[in-house]
Amino acid sequence: IDVLIGPGLIRQYSLCNHPEENHRYLIGVLLDPTSRGGSQAMHEQIVVGQTLSISEPRNLFPLEHSAARTLLFAGGIGITPILCMAERLAQSGADFELHYAARSAERAAFQARIRESSFASRVHFHFDDAEPAQPLDMATLLREPCPSTHLYVCGPTGFMEFVLHSAREQGWGEDALHREYFSASPDVHAGGASFEIQLASSGDIYVIPEDQTIIDVLYEAGIDIPVSCEQGICGTCVTRVLEGEPDHRDSFLTDSEKARNNQFTPCCSRAKSARLVLDI
């Protein structure tokens, strides 16, 4: 859901309710020392009893219920969507296991809920400071992939890339790899040269300067594109590209989708060509 925390401050949080709960929305918010305002405001400014405006829920990280087996990987606060998946899989009697990595037991959220669950024996904790060490042996966990097994990962970008890279090295296909990012790629905030976009419907051309995004320029021109995270994470703003070569800076599209160069995320991506023609 999108949560309006304050004027102009919207953040996205995963619901982590038990699947059978329908009387409330439950989210988990980590206090991030490098917060750009969202987590800090949630911890320090929001008080009990305060009313917040939120969006309707949307699911950009769905389970493949036909999978014969499911592997779940969570890093830190990335447990929030993964925990709900585990509860749903347990409820349906599916074959799965969950690997939860964190710096320490103290930094791992929802431990009591997990240890008291019906699927506690399927959960493996991996803490950096544990004695003895509890490393993630990805080569063993991911070897000999079965086409009907699916993998889901959520957590810090480095952790996610480690899991996904390990899976690809073991021969996993992209269709079996599912991810949800909580933070943007460093490329999102990198600069870039100015370029032009052209709207296919009207032929209008707009210049995108170095210090503005496509979304910014179109908004100023009165053209509204659905947008949410503005960091290339959620996929809300994905737009078809009819001509030109995008400079992909998002974490939403897969490598194969990016290679086709027929869609991109205008909230953060730019252009390698002088002009992009967009299906707008």
Furnish the topology, listing elements before pairings.
Blueprint: E1 2-6, E2 9-12, H1 38-44, E3 53-54, E4 69-75, H2 79-91, E5 96-102, H3 111-115, E6 123-127, H4 138-142, E7 149-155, H5 157-169, E8 177-181, E9 195-199, E10 205-208, H6 214-220, E11 239-243, E12 246-247, H7 255-260, E13 263-264, E14 270-271, E15 275-278
Parallel strand pairs: 4-5, 4-7, 5-6, 7-8, 9-15
Antiparallel strand pairs: 1-2, 1-3, 9-10, 11-13, 11-15, 12-14
CATH class of the largest domain: Alpha Beta
CATH topology group of the largest domain: Rossmann fold
Overall outline: globular
Average pLDDT, rounded to a whole number, is 89
Order of helices and strands: EEHEEHEHEHEHEEEHEEHEEE
Fraction of helical residues: 10-25%
Q: Sketch the major β-sheet.
A: 5 strands, parallel
State the low-pLDDT regions, or none: none
Based on the coordinates given, report the CATH architecture of the largest domain.
3-Layer(aba) Sandwich
Number of strands: 15
CATH superfamily of the largest domain: Nucleotide-binding domain of ferredoxin-NADP reductase (FNR) module
Strand arrangement across the biggest beta sheet: 6-5-4-7-8
The share of residues in extended strands comes to: 15-25%
The secondary-structure class comes to: alpha/beta
| Number of discrete domains | 3
Q: For the CA atoms, what is the radius of gyration? A: 20 Å
**Counting H and I runs of at least 4 residues, what is the number of helices?**
7
Distance between the termini: 26 Å
